[in-house]
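RECORD CONTENTS
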Amino acid sequence: MGDGQLRYSTEISNDHYYKYRTRPGELNKYFTLYYPNDSEMIPKTVAGALVGSIPGGLAASGALLYDKQGFQLLRAAERCFRHFTPWVVSGATYGLGVSTAAQIRKKEDFYNHMLGGYGAGTMIGVWYKSHRMGAWLGLLFAGLGGLMKYIKDTDGDMKGEMRRTRVFNMYRTGWMVDRPDQEGVKDGEVNASFQKYRS
């Protein structure tokens, strides 16, 4: 069949990945804490408040369901305000803390989200007048916020690289073996790159 044509690497470099990847929608920055706009204070604070309204709604619903004194409109409104508001304020504090840290540090990374998470947790402790609750929730939110941001930026790569290399023929790989290097392999010798696994 002849020597055939040389094969070339199918790896997508980080430069090309970040240049040509699909950008997130503009409205998404108001509905997620990990949109790449840490230095933008208003959108990040609004996003934090909107995200905080989700656990706030769950907390308010739980407070109403477990009210043993029965349903009373004023009492229900008071309980909703008491348990819904701290989570919204906490989320806004998260976004405000992240953007403030990003502007001071001039960097966008998971450390900003750890600082924002600790501020968010302590805000709940202030609302419920519990220093211990604020300290523990601050540590929890700092850890979770930083971890989520780290995973978002690195695709879960524990080496700390911005992303793992993507290849077009990823479907040919196995779980327990490395991808054979196809660079320089001729089409006429397509199985040559697998010889090291057979020996």
